[in-house]
Design goal:
Layout: E1 11-19, H1 25-34, E2 46-55, E3 58-67, H2 74-77, E4 86-92, H3 96-114, E5 118-124, E6 134-136, E7 149-152, E8 158-160, H4 164-174, E9 178-181, H5 190-202, E10 226-228
Parallel strand pairs: 1-3, 1-4, 4-5, 5-9
Antiparallel strand pairs: 2-3, 6-7, 7-8, 9-10
Helix pairs in contact: 3-4
Length: 229
């Protein structure tokens, strides 16, 4: 029992960050917890971050689990799922394959190890849409009908970027409670990702029921690029 006048203990919540290797998960966590963007990519096996956040006056101590997305760590990664309150499922704007893997790989793994956990879907590297190399291609110039937004990579090759609408569509399909977009490099929308995850985690039991079956509401006009179920 706390002494009279002593502050209440923070609520503890566990959040696991999942997604393909090199999609930007560790950069997202570094910017949120340490305030810097790593310049060199170093694959993660496992790392745990502890960070306090306040939601509506309630102090929450977040245990943030960074996981490896590579296949060779599949069995080891399964150990991270126990007692999870919310999963931040990530993909990269410049990798449509990483969005496909959300449906084809990650959701199945979550169902196997942590069925019913609450999910949010997060698009990383959103700054690429506003970069000087980005352009809009409507498929009228014969460039393989990429459609939507595309950008040139360092080799001068045109590559398709995932659109906001495509992200929202996948969020609906997998039963995510939120869809958000952010840029760790520009530190835009990073805090909002973890604020929404913490808010959802507050209402969750570890590994307990999540998807309420309601569709994601398309809110593409929002400055925070957030769609809410």
């Amino acid at each position: 029992m706390p002494f009279c006048g002593s502050p209440p203990k923070p609520v503890q919540r566990k959040i696991v960050i999942l997604g393909d290797g090199a999609c930007g998960k560790t950069s997202l966590l570094n910017v949120f917890t340490r305030g810097y963007f790593p310049k060199v990519y170093e694959p993660t096996v496992f790392e745990n971050y502890i960070h306090d956040i306040f939601i509506d006056g309630q102090q929450i101590q977040l245990s943030l689990w960074d996981t490896a997305g590579q296949e060779e760590f599949d069995k080891l990664r399964s150990l991270s799922y126990s007692d999870t309150h919310c999963i931040i499922l990530c993909f990269s704007i410049d990798s449509p394959d990483s969005l496909e893997n959300v449906k084809n790989k990650w959701v199945g793994e979550i169902l196997e190890h942590c069925e019913g956990v609450k999910l949010i879907l997060v698009a990383l590297k959103a700054d690429l849409r506003q970069s000087e190399n980005a352009n809009t291609n409507n498929g009228d110039d014969g460039a393989d009908n990429l459609g939507g937004t595309s950008a040139y990579n360092n080799d001068g090759q045109l590559k398709k970027l995932v659109t906001y609408e495509e992200g929202v569509s996948v969020a609906k399909q997998i039963g995510a409670l939120r869809y958000l977009e952010c840029s760790a490099m520009k530190n835009r929308g990073v805090k909002e990702v973890f604020t929404e995850a913490a808010r959802i985690a507050l209402t969750a039991r570890p590994g307990a029921a999540s998807a309420n079956g309601q569709p994601v509401a398309d809110n593409s006009g929002s400055s925070s690029s957030c769609a809410i179920m």
